[in-house]
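Listing S7. Sequence submitted for prediction.
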Amino acid sequence: MGSRRFAAYSIIASAIVIMIATSVTGQAADVIVKRTLSTRDVRTEESPLASVVADAIRAAGKAEIGLIAATSFTDATIPEGPAKPEDFVRSLMFKSDTVVVMRLTGAQVKTALEHGLGMLPARSAAFLQVSGIRIRANPTAQRGSRIDSIQVGKAALDPSKTYMVAMPSPLAGGALVYSKAWSRTDMDRDTGTTLEDALKAFLATTKEIGNATEERIVLGR
């Protein structure tokens, strides 16, 4: 009962944010894109546009970490200048998927990230875009041992600590063989908020995007 009530409150809160953003002009306010955003290389490296979506997922779940797989994206590019929320929504392949929050140990997070890097240098639908963490990895190292370091916020990932990790519902269900990292018993809650609504709510509180390269995923350095 408590989970359903929380999900209902989350949906209402997202709707209120979007309504406030559109109340003055009758349509959602533009976001200023400071540098071109694209999903072109979303299956092999950090994607600036996918990072925005990962941030929205983490915000919607009120989580420490946000994850989303490359398969969740279309081929999309947003040029510099004013952009509407719909321009960002078009980057989503499955915009009606909901945001799910998982309780995962640092060891589980690392297993998932290693799995996401496992097919490099080949393109992979399982490659993970991230929020709230920074990864340094060697893509030529042995599979399962490619990550050199993981930072959550300002601290190193603690393998024994439990983290709140937000992600799309199919990923939480073990899609793309992520069942090797977690199971449904690790689920904390389904927020009931769709990826589309999470993204629109996040953009409603954001004026500018793409001010600098963030280097969330650093490969081969």
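Caption to Listing S7: primary sequence and predicted structure tokens for the chain studied. The domain at 2-210 is CATH 3.90.780.10 (5'-nucleotidase;  domain 2). The chain is about 30% helix and 25% strand.
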